[in-house]
Amino acid sequence: MKMNRNWVTPFLALIFVAVGSSGVLMFFHLADGFTEVLHEVLGLTFVLFAFLHVAINWRSMRNYFGKTNFAIAAVAVAVSSAGLIVIERAQLPVDLIVLERVARAPISDAFRVLEIDRGRAAAVLSEKGIELDGAETIEDIWVKNNSSPEEVVETLVYEAR
Questions:
Q1: Among 104, 126, 123, which Cα is nearest to 161's?
Q2: Higher pLDDT, 65 or 117
Q3: Of the four, 42, 117, 147, 160, which is 20 to 30 A from 75 by CA?
Q4: What is the pLDDT of residues 45-100, one digit of tens each?
Q5: What is the pLDDT of residue 94?
Q6: CB 19: neighbour CB atoms within 10 A?
Q7: Is 41 in contact with 19 (CB distance < 8 Å)?
Q8: Distance between CA atoms of 57 and 6, rounded to whole angstroms?
């Protein structure tokens, strides 16, 4: 199948609608958890199709790049993006704060909050070569086992419950 406008443009337009819609849902915290993966994966797909669109339409699009409107738009998007990143970094998201506090809480409290049985956790982690012995917090588990936080937490949450 040859990539041309007849294929790229409809995909780009429909993916734009899906990414935009999921972004709005995420902004208003509607269907949280269900839209994030959709938004991220289709966002990457959108980037791919945007590059294809630019490549296919390069001749006509390069005329825009030298115009004042393009420069103004580029600066506005860059400044807005940087500003939003700075604002977001100044205040950590609640889920990261909660995860950090659970990871640093006494392990018995963390297991109780996550509804995890200590014996089951030890068995499941042991299957992955991660030992629970001597750990006072969930953070201790990944530090003492030279593991990653994601591996330990995902194992506990998805397999030890």
A1: 123
A2: 117
A3: 42
A4: 999 999 999 999 888 888 888 889 999 999 999 999 999 999 888 887 887 888 88
A5: 83
A6: 20
A7: no
A8: 12
